Amino acid sequence: MVKKVSLMLMILGAFGFFILTGCEDDDSPTSSAPAELEYIGSDACAECHEAISDKITNNGHGYKLNKVENGQAPSYPYTNVPTPPVGYDWDDISYVIGGFGWKARFVDLQGYIITGDAVQYNIETSGWSGYHSDEDPGTKPYNCGRCHTTGWKSTDDGGAHQDGMPGMAGQFSEPGVHCEACHGRGSRHVESSSADDIVRDTNSSMCGGCHYRNENHLIDASGGFIRHHEQYDEMISGGHRGLDCIECHDPHQGIQDPSYSYAASLAKCQECHTGANYAMHNGADCIKCHMPEATKSAVASNVYNGDLMTHIFAINTEAVGKDAMWYSDGKKAVGEVTLDFVCYQCHQDPDGVGGAGSPKTLEELSAKATGYHTP
Ligand code: HEC
Ligand code: HEC
Ligand code: HEC
Ligand code: HEC
Ligand code: HEC
Ligand code: HEC
Ligand code: HEC
Ligand code: HEC
After folding, report:
1. Digit-coded pLDDT (tens) for 8-42
2. Which atom of ligand 4 is nearest to the CA of 312?
3. What are the φ and ψ backbone dihedral angles of 301, each rounded to 5 degrees?
4. Residue with CA closest to ligand 6 atom 26
């Protein structure tokens, strides 16, 4: 069974690779914009697209890489990163990587990512953990710009070292993911205001140009969880493979934005899934059961709860635990989530691990879950 699924994933992976290629001369996902154009920066877009520019300030994309200026901590809409790692002042930090959602890492004044035992700040716990602690500080280049910046050009492709810092393995036009990261170079469009001069790519493979991990689109796992930034890989492993991310997401609105509506997201599930008996279960709704936190970015609260909602929607109803979710020595996930991830968000396993609800064995869960929506 597991073998069959993995083979299927590999075939799918090859297909996914096909639709994702096309990034040869430009590292960004929107290289379809003609190369003679230039990146002009999101401030220029704001002149005419004010509403979108305002809305996007509550979205995580723009906060992916934050310059430290005047020795001050960067500011975020909902979180804060109180200090750099022990032994560093804000004056010793050039950029903070992340800090909007799950965790923050730090770039030193030479452009290298700071490594060590307690150099990653975890927002949920306000605690610190290690990052490449076997590598000396001052040796790990910042080569993450393809997915974290706008207009990234790596030094391998002839880019400069950003801000003249040797550790920066490329240059960018703006730190963070801004308008032109998704819409391509805008220099001609700001002159012409023509829709023909700007990219409007609604395909999930555009988002998938960053929300993936490996070219083969297998779902990487480690430490008993799916690894983060694989939403595209997760999604194309199941029945949603043909959906665009923007069926469910407003590309300009973050899911923590005060005007984002969880209820509207929930209603969307039922727009497409009509007809069956989709009754809710004691406070569990479609999203709770079908997008459990089987993925981990920064910290897990227990063995069943990571900190990112998976985009694998299919559930394996057999009475098997999470070990059945992995193959290849726990390094890859199959495209079905096991019941323990789903149901122990609320119920407890026989050892008392999980949520605050009644204890249930995997057999009891399986009996209830099998044919769940069939009256
Ligand atoms: C001088 C005003 C102006 C500026 C500056 C401007 N735009 Fe536009 N933009 C427009 C107008 C007007 C339209 C509507 C064009 C139409 O529908 O024919 C538009 C349409 C668009 C569209 C939709 C295209 C489509 O296919 O429907 C996108 C995406 C877009 N702009 C992005 C940007 C980005 C990114 C920037 C900054 C790089 C930017 N715009 C700067 C005026 C501007
Ligand atoms: C994460 C990727 C992403 C970023 C960042 C982004 N956009 Fe978009 N944008 C999209 C996608 C995808 C669509 C198409 C949505 C659709 O057709 O439903 C879109 C549509 C648009 C449109 C036309 C439709 C509309 O909603 O009016 C405009 C104008 C636009 N974007 C401008 C901008 C500007 C200006 C910025 C920066 C302030 C920006 N976008 C940042 C992905 C992005
Ligand atoms: C293939 C694209 C890609 C590459 C390459 C990449 N990341 Fe990310 N990263 C993402 C995406 C997408 C997210 C957010 C979604 C998620 O975590 O599932 C993210 C999230 C993060 C976060 C958490 C942000 C927050 O606000 O909590 C940190 C920190 C981070 N990445 C660090 C790095 C570092 C350091 C590198 C380079 C060594 C790197 N990433 C390379 C795509 C990428
Ligand atoms: C735009 C339409 C659309 C929306 C919106 C949508 N789905 Fe689906 N869903 C599909 C299609 C198409 C399939 C695959 C064919 C099928 O099984 O009916 C699918 C399959 C599924 C499956 C079966 C598992 C799998 O991978 O095939 C689950 C579970 C599911 N969807 C849950 C959800 C949930 C939960 C939501 C809301 C967050 C949602 N869907 C929103 C279209 C949609
Ligand atoms: C250039 C790379 C890139 C592209 C393209 C991209 N993302 Fe992201 N996305 C990221 C990174 C990096 C983060 C983490 C941002 C942070 O934590 O500061 C992120 C975070 C997110 C989040 C969580 C943050 C929030 O505020 O809700 C959602 C949802 C998301 N992306 C959806 C999308 C969708 C949908 C698309 C396509 C329309 C898309 N992304 C395109 C890199 C990208
Ligand atoms: C069937 C609907 C659906 C589709 C398609 C979909 N998402 Fe989501 N996504 C959601 C929902 C629902 C949430 C959770 C929203 C909430 O918590 O209110 C979410 C959350 C996220 C998050 C944040 C996860 C977290 O735990 O904070 C990211 C990042 C994300 N989506 C990226 C993507 C990307 C990239 C794609 C396309 C490859 C995509 N999504 C396609 C429904 C969808
Ligand atoms: C959002 C929390 C939540 C999730 C997720 C959840 N449950 Fe429940 N469940 C409850 C609550 C609350 C009750 C009633 C009180 C109790 O038993 O703790 C309950 C009761 C039950 C019962 C006994 C009564 C009945 O309805 O038959 C079974 C069996 C059950 N759940 C199975 C499952 C299975 C199987 C899953 C996963 C597919 C699941 N639950 C996921 C909260 C949840
Ligand atoms: C208590 C957890 C739970 C909730 C809540 C829940 N589901 Fe499911 N769903 C399941 C389980 C378990 C299966 C697998 C059933 C099987 O394979 O026999 C499933 C299967 C599905 C399937 C696959 C086809 C089918 O009917 O078996 C779809 C589609 C689906 N759910 C959509 C939804 C939607 C939409 C909602 C919200 C309206 C929802 N589910 C709410 C647990 C849940």
Report:
1. 443 443 333 333 333 333 455 555 556 679 999 99
2. 26
3. -85, -25
4. 308
